Amino acid sequence: MDCEIICVGTELLTGETLNTNVQYVSEQLSRIGAAVHYQTTIGDNPGRLRDCVDIAAHRSQVIVVTGGLGPTQDDLTKKTIADYFGMPLKRDEGQVAKMKAHFDRYNYKLTENNFRQCDIPVGAEAIDNTRGTAPGIHIEKNGVSVFMLPGPPEEMKAMLDLSVLPVLKERTHQLVLSRFFNICDMGESMVEEAILDLVKDQDNPTIATYAKPGEVLIRVTANGTDKAQVNALLDQVSQAIEARFGRHIFAHSSDPLSKAVADLLMKKGMTLAIADSGTGGMAGEILSAIDGMSKVFKLGLVLNDDQMKAKLLGDDADEVGAMASRLFALSDCDINVAVSELSQTPDDPLSAGVQIAICAGGKTKTETCRFKGTGRMIQTRAAIKVFGMIREVLL
What domains, with CATH codes, occur in the chain? Predict the structure, then answer.
């Protein structure tokens, strides 16, 4: 089933609003075995929208349109598409009643222009909006299925999940399953090299890699009509990936390394302290945002001043190994991490060195790393290295 997505909204083109809708719709359609071949983003212009719909109607079986269903004058999606298919608009009294009930429930003032949202193309089906006021529209015409969904992401997601995907899933008759392998301490090129023979001439399953700082995600996806057969296809590739990457695989999901480390800490009940005099406390900041971390992350110090560092961690705290050992004496935690930034290389201002030390089980391990990028990028990469070193201790 060939699908196409059209996102309507001038704010999407000017950069005022991040278009998260297209990512969500594409992901959900792919999961039910629908093939998304085209994505288009256009402004609130009826002429250009009509042109886009005309092109889509001649090459795709399903068109999902988001945005432009609201009450204001620039919300032209519904009328433009209805005109294209020769379907006049007619007010749906059932939707009017639902809108009045919605406004009464929240004690909102209902203005006359809101009723424009209840105008439905004759011969089309209104799709209830469980999170807002603008109903969606489902048109079946000339062998094409068109689903018009509201622009606000929460409204769009609920409508897609509850009313659109079940309809399309019945048509695909395909089961699509994916498995994930999140890898650390290996660059994307190294990962790709290790699976080149699996990727070559791939058909079903398919293998895709996605790189992030310090992490590479492998997604293996297979499709078919029988669940056992689909899983058998995945098993064969999964076993090969497990054998090749072993301990480098830190999660069988898209969760980041920080989440895997947090889960290990909480599972083992081991406590953590971090003293950071180089990267602004990035590692601690990321870990603190994870639910439940307060139970094990006991102390976080951001030390930007040498005198304060010496006062808290001793006169020899300039040496990162000593810094980690002093932190253990201060915190009495199971794992104590010290991070210290080195000076930048004069001939490469976008490169900086970071020293990381971990004191755990009576032993201290120190590593010196050099990262390239902006200050924030270097901090992020250093934090990920910290997570990797903590993981090694936990394993």
Answer: 2-172 (3.40.980.10), 176-251 (3.30.70.2860), 257-394 (3.90.950.20)
Angle value at C-alpha 118, between 117 and 121, nearest 5 degrees: 100
pLDDT digits (tens, 9 = 90+) for 114-150: 899 999 999 999 999 998 889 999 999 999 999 999 9
In terms of pTM, does the model score above 0.90? no
Query: For 152-196, what is each residue's pLDDT tens digit?
Result: 999 999 999 999 999 998 888 778 889 999 999 888 899 999 999
